[in-house]
Amino acid sequence: MTDIKSLAEFIREKREKTGLSVSGLSKKTGLTVEQIEDIEAGKDLFLPATIRQKLAKGLKVNPSEIKEYERILVGIYDSVSRNYIESVKKAILNGETDNLRCPICHAKLNTKIVRLLDLENNIALHPKAQCSKCSFQIK
Q1: Which residue, 32, 40, 90, 106, shows the most beta carbons closer than 10 Å to its own?
Q2: Are residues 70 and 116 in the same domain?
Q3: Same domain for 92 and 36?
Q4: Higher per-residue confidence, 113 vs 106
């Protein structure tokens, strides 16, 4: 492996090496520009097999090469304690988001609360966070 640390970096590097723009890769793969931008921004960490296969074909790589970088991120998350993630979720729900930092790169976490309905149509609040610099996220 090279110095590439994430799926986002791998996809972006391979796209640039093939001389494609984001819209060019979109046309070649049938994926939307937004899907590719989300992957390259680190928003999508694990890809469905169909998307992985389309990207692999468009980038002229084996799908297993892409999957390899998806697994690397699992290892990163293994080092983040469940207690830390729960404390971040609690802070988000309490509105205490100003000082929340990524456990991987220490950049600011972007946070939001999603309102969902449970099976009995009660509102359930679901905290989410995404690092502003790396691909760490709490879904």
Answers
A1: 40
A2: no
A3: no
A4: 113
